Amino acid sequence: MKKPILGCIADDFTGATDLANNLVRGGMRVVQAIGVPNAPLDEEADAVVVALKSRTIPAAEAVAQTLQALRWLQAQGVQQVYFKYCSTFDSTPAGNIGPVTEALMNALGCDFTIACPAFPDNGRTVFKGYLFVGDELLHESGMRNHPLTPMTDSNLVRVLQAQTKRKVGLIDYRSVARGTEGVRERIAKLRSEGVQVAIVDATSNAELVAVGPAWADLKLVTAGSGIAIGLPQNFGLREGDAATAARLPSAQGLRAIVSGSCSVATNGQVLSFLSGGGAGFAIDPLQLAAGADLVQQALDWAKPRLAQGPVLVYATAEPAAVKAAQQKIGVEQAGALVEHALAAIARGLVEQGVGQLVVAGGETSGACVQALEISRMRIGPQIAPGVPWCHARSPVAPGGLHLTLKSGNFGGPGFFREAFELLA
Ligand SMILES: Nc1ncnc2c1ncn2[C@@H]1O[C@H](COP(=O)(O)OP(=O)(O)OP(=O)(O)O)[C@@H](O)[C@H]1O
Ligand SMILES: O=C(O)[C@@H](O)C(=O)CO
């Protein structure tokens, strides 16, 4: 069996499918493991993505989990390692991007790597080392209010330098504009100055593809999912191979959406689905806290409706409603109650014959994937930038399950319907 050539470690589940999606677009066949597998890979793939939930856990734990993933990937024979974090560089001075990068560099005996969260398809661009989210600088975007990783500085050289002892520098837009040669020259210069990690400017897919060959010699790359579109070419794979790489078994079963994301994008998607006549059941955290059995109620509600088309079960709410619930029952308690209920509902829906399931929200996805006992997924076609369909093995769905894990911020208003249209 051909060994995977690229080994990836992602710091959350939806981020992992985002990365896998871009590798597939570049022509790679990709398998995603949920957590570090305890057995060797038994199917053919060009790249493997190990999905961790290590973004906001204590840095020492993130390092330990990452190194365990690295050892498993090395045992599968990978030639290059890719550490995937968020395109908004979600982290704090304590980590985890810096400490994990350092630990990987130490373990791989690597004295130079890059750090590039750019993801132009979703409006994340880096210019002169400053990260933009759409037209706003990172620290002026909604990320400044993130509950766990508030991003208050857009200068990534400064942000990363605060997290690592290794010297951080910049491969700036002038070098990137000169393509692979320009970048190679810049790397040589930075190395001579003692720089070991370089932020990379990038504002377009064309740039990411053009400079991809410059990363071929690096044992480790660290990035969002953007640079993935330029990597497959280094292994002789091309965009033209993407249709084959993205092939999944044909879709079967009933269709459902489970949404626990409260982002602006997801609120718009839920509204669009409901106002277009879609059937929806709302989960209220206050009722959950009061002991209502909303899981059973939602499943009873869904049963007669599933045959008519996709059903939506959602806790998605506007910021004021979320805040009100959080004030009454606490942020963590509200989150945990909702996640637990949505995960049980996802499992119940699959037991009722759902074979095509959309899950919205990173934490929600983690909870659903666990409830469905999914350990591995193959990555299929892209629904929207950063969001592919996947085909998962699950003991709850012996014939396999088509599943998509949507990052809160990703997808346009019509995402839910577009997702099912793509499979049909
Ligand atoms: N109505 C609600 N009130 C309070 N908390 C809620 C409500 N609905 C969902 N939640 C919780 O909010 C959190 C949403 O996080 P999640 O990661 O799923 O979405 P996201 O942050 O939009 O996605 P991503 O991490 O991909 O950006 C979950 O813990 C969920 O349980
Ligand atoms: O890079 C991104 O923005 C996403 O893949 C992500 O990591 C969401 O949590």
TrEMBL record:
SUPFAM superfamilies associated with the record: YgbK-like (SSF142764)
GO MF: ATP binding; kinase activity
EC number: 2.7.1.217
Organism domain of life: Bacteria
Residue span, Four-carbon acid sugar kinase N-terminal domain: 6-229
InterPro entries registered for this protein in UniProt: 4-carb_acid_sugar_kinase_N (IPR010737), 4-carb_acid_sugar_kinase_N_sf (IPR037051), NBD_C (IPR031475), NBD_C_sf (IPR042213), OtnK (IPR050007)
Four-carbon acid sugar kinase nucleotide binding domain: residues covered: 256-416
Pfam families: NBD_C, SBD_N
Protein purpose: Catalyzes the ATP-dependent phosphorylation of 3-oxo-tetronate to 3-oxo-tetronate 4-phosphate.
Entry's family note: Belongs to the four-carbon acid sugar kinase family.
Name of the protein in question: 3-oxo-tetronate kinase
